[in-house]
Each structure stands twice: as C-alpha cells, then as structure tokens.
Amino acid sequence: MMSMSGGWFFVVAAEAITVGNTTVTLPGIGSWLALAIDHQDFAAIGWAVFAMAVVIVLYDQLMFRPIVAWADKFRFEQTASRERPRSWMYDLVCRTRFLPFLISLLLLPGRPLAAIRWPHTPRLKLTRVNQRLGRITDAAWIALVAAACILASLVLIRFISTSLTVSEAISTVELALATLVRVVVLIAVASLIWVPIGVWVGLRPAWTERVQPIAQFLAAFPANVLFPFAVIIIIQLKLNPNIWLSPLMILGTQWYILFNVIAGASALPNDLKEAAQIFEMRGWQWWRQVALPGIFPYFVTGALTASGGSWNASIVAESVSWGDKHLEAIGLGSFIANATAAGDLPRVALGIAVMSVFVVAINRVVWRPLYRFAERRMRLD
C-alpha cells in the first residue's frame, strides 16, 4: 500500500524529465500535471487530482481492502478479536460461486503435473569441506563486490574531478547538512503528530477502515500539485523559502509513519490489551509499557521509510516552479535539481554521490541500531 502511494507521489517527476535542453515526457497523468503547472492551468490540475482520487479509491476498495480483510485470519492470538476488518469486495468474493469455478478452470492444466511423481533430488550433507567451500565462496563474493565498489568510486571521482574542485565538493557536503537538518526536524514533528493519532486509530478497526483510504489518497497526492499555492503564498507573504518550502518534503512521506503506526497498533495482541485493562494502566504508564514497545518496530520502519522518502522528495521540494515564478531553498535537493535542469552531469553525479553517502551513513549510525534495539528489547513474542 505504501509503495503504491509512493509511486503516485513521484509520478510527476518520473513522467516529465528535463535534462539540459532535452525533455522526455511519457503519456500519463504525471506529464499532464507537469504541463498544467508550466501553463498555470488550475482547471487541468483539478481534473488530474479528480482522476487520481477516483483511481486511488478504486484500487483501495477492489484490491487492498479485501487483502487486509483476508490477512486478518492469519493473526495468531490466544483471545478472539473483538472487531475484524471488513470489505464488501471480500465478502462478495467469498459468497460467489463463480470464483471457485474460475479458479478450478485455471488450475486444471496443473493437475496432471501435480500427479507426476518427480524423482527426489539427493540432499547434500553438510560437511566441513562444504562449510569451508561456502566460506571461501562468501569471501570471494565480498571481495568481488568491494573491488567493484572501489573501481566505481575511482571512476566517479575521476569523472567529477575533471570539472569540479575540492572546495565545490565541500560546499556540496554543506548543502547536504542543510537538507539533513530539514529531514530530522520534519521527521520529529511528523512523529509527534502522527504517532498518537496512529495508535488511537489502530486500536479501533472501524476507524482504521475509514482513515486508511483517506491516508492512502493523501500519501499518493503529488506535492507538485501544491507548488502553485506554496509559491503564491510565499511570494505574497514574503516568507523565507528555506523554511516554508521544507513542509513539501514531508508532505508525501509523513504517511509512512502513520501507516506503520496504525499497523503496529492493530497488531497488538488482544490478551496484552486486556491485561493492561485488568491492571488499570492509564496515561504515561500505558504508553511506556504497552503502546510504545508494541509499535516501536513499526515506527522505526515508518520513520526510516519517511526519512529516505524525504531525501528523495528534497530534489522536487527544494526547487519549485509555477509558470515563470521560481523559488529555491538552500540544500542538496535544489543543487541536484538545478544541475539536472542545466545538464551539468558532473554536479549531478556529485550530488547523488553525497546524498547516497549521507543516507547510508544515517542507516548505519541511526536506523540499524534502532532496529537491533527493537529486535532485542521490544519483541512481543
């Protein structure tokens, strides 16, 4: 569900690409939106948003809602669930007689193959020779990957150094630090807002069914559509673009936090919730001993995804246009966007390399230790 929403979020950037004097457009609603933004056509933007809303509601009701309702039967609990997710499409599929008949027709060619007695392949015994061979193979593969990475890094450095200096590379790192500050602040603010709301919604299946389609639509809503309003408001009120363009980075990625927190709260075992009620846990004690440990692994996943999505969105959100009006925020995203528009490939390569280094470093230093902590201290099984 989140991946589908993320795809819609970047549909404008993916279906209308400009590099230097070359523009590549694909037929689709993304290129329609890009053209409408260039021509300052509010009516065309409205029709595009309406078409996206219809498509999102359709695939939510016809695909994701039935999957959620069907997956509920695989929950392993010692007590029965009070409320179960419902889907009119899932109920229709379960009651119809045509679908089992159709499935039996589709499986008909496979029945002769299933009746064949295939020879059993002998299992390899795990010996010291096989273990030693496996270690040698792993070491050779790691050495091959490391050599490929070193070679690619040398080629990239040589390509960048032909037209850029060390001082320009240092300034690019400084721009990445500015974007990092934005990402950290936005993730913190989004967490403070959506974690309590996600827990409240996730503990109430009826509200989950109502809120999740709305959240899917908002997650799929492309930030490019709001660029005209952002540009007009910032110019009219004479606001600082470095501050007020930042919310566009988290606009489409904050919903990853909400989705995962809702999933974590929904997955809390009923016996745990009933035990908390028996012991009359309330307020901060309930959050500290029940809610936060239960949703923490899900929150880490959502925050990690939102963080990575915000880095990607910075390329779109730190440099915005509405017709002939253009605003920029100081950061790595605007650096990459401007270099791409100008066709400056060395700067594009430098910006992508710096962003990759920052993202990998954050994953190693922050998110991986949090995952290990969640695996070691926050497991409910």
Q: How would a textbook summarize the main sheet?
A: 2 strands, antiparallel
CATH topology (fold) name of the largest domain: MetI-like fold
Helix content: over 70%
List the secondary-structure elements in sequence, H or E.
Answer: HHEEHHHHHHHHHHHHHHEEHH
**Total domain modules:** 2
Query: Given the helix and strand composition, which structural class is it?
Result: mainly alpha
Low-confidence blocks of residues? none
- The CATH homologous superfamily of the largest domain is called MetI-like
Estimate what percentage of residues fall within beta strands.
under 5%
The CA-CA distance between the termini, in Å, is 26 Å
CATH architecture heading of the largest domain = Orthogonal Bundle
Number of distinct beta strands: 4
Tell me, briefly, the overall form. Answer: globular
Total helical elements: 18
Instruction: Please give the radius of gyration in angstroms.
Output: 25 Å
Mean pLDDT over the full residue set = 82
Spatial arrangement of strands, main beta sheet? 1-2
CATH class category of the largest domain: Mainly Alpha
